[in-house]
Amino acid sequence: MTINTAMCAWGMSGREFHAPLLQAEPHLRLTTLLRRSGPDGSEPQGVTCISDFQAILDDPAIELVIVNTPNELHFSMANAALAAGKHVVLEKPITITKGDARALTRQAHDAGRILAVFHNRRLDADYLTLKRHLDSGDLGDLVELEWHYDRYRAIVTHKQWKEDNLPGAGTWFDLGIHLVDGMLALFGPPLTVAADMDSLRRPGAATDFFDVRFRYPGHRVHLCASTFVRELGPVIVAHGKKGSLVIPHDSAQPKDEPPTALLHTELSGKVIRERVPLEPARTHDFYANVADAISGKAPLAFTPEAATAALALVHKAIEAARQPAMSCT
Fold this sequence. Notes:
CATH topology of the largest domain: Dihydrodipicolinate Reductase, domain 2
Number of domains: 2
Helix content: 25-40%
Number of strands: 14
Distance between the termini: 68 Å
Radius of gyration: 21 Å
Number of helices: 9
Structural class: alpha/beta
CATH superfamily of the largest domain: Dihydrodipicolinate Reductase, domain 2
CATH architecture of the largest domain: 2-Layer Sandwich
Order of helices and strands: EHEEHEHEHEHEHHEEEEEEEHH
C-alpha cells in the first residue's frame, strides 16, 4: 500500500527534515506540495506544486497531510485536514494553546484518523544514547541531568513568527519543547518547575535564552539554551549515584571517527572511564511508524496526547518564569 502525501510548506523543515524521510519510506509517496509563491525548481522531481490549500483538502487521492507551517497555523490547517478525512502529521508544537491541542486530539479520535506530532528528536543519537545508559543502570540512580540546545545566532532573522514577541514564538517553544518531550518520555511528569527566560539579542522580543529546572523524586532535570554560544559544550551531562555520562555536541566530535560519549562509572567492581559509541540515530522510524499506524500494523508512537503533555509543561515553565525572583539584598 502506498499512501499519497501532501506537504504544506517548503522551508527548511520541509526540505531538510520531512522530504528526505518521506523519500526513504516506501509506503509513503509525496505527491503534492503547497507553494503559494509558485515552484522554483528546488522541489522533488515528480511532485505537483499547488498554491491553494483547499485543493489538497478536496483531492480524494491524498490521504496524509503534513502541516509544517508556522506555529500559529497549526490548529486551523490540521483542523481542516482532519475534517476533510485526512491523516495528519503536525510539526511541533502541536498547537500554541492547550485547548486547541486537546480539541485536535478529540477530533482525530472521533474521525478515526492518525494525528502524529513531529517530535523527531526522540530518534536522535544523543537521546537514544542517554536512554541506553539509563536503562542499563550504568549510571545508577539518576541525580542530575543537564540537557542543552545551544546555538550561536547573534543576528535576528526575518522570521517574525520565531523572533517577535508573539504567542508560540521563541526558542522555548521552538526548541525547548523537544527537550521537554524527551524528558517526559524518559521520566514522566515532574513535580515542580522553576524557570528563567529572556530575550538577549533584542530586548522585548521572543525568548532566545532559557534555563528551566524540573524536579523529580530523587533527581533534577535542567533544560537550557542560548543563542550566544560560540563554543558549544556537551549536549547532555547526566550524573547518577554510580557514574556519569557526557555526550558532546556534534561539532566537538572527530570528523573522521564514529561519534562517542564519555562514560565514567563502575562496572563489576571496577571503575572505568572510556569512550562509548553513540547509538545510531533512527530518524527514519518516524514515517515508518506513521505508515504502519495508518495501515493498522502498529500503534502510533508520536501521539497527540504526548505532544499535549509537553505543551502543557512548556506553558507551566512560562508561568514560572513570570514569577518575581527573590531579592538578594
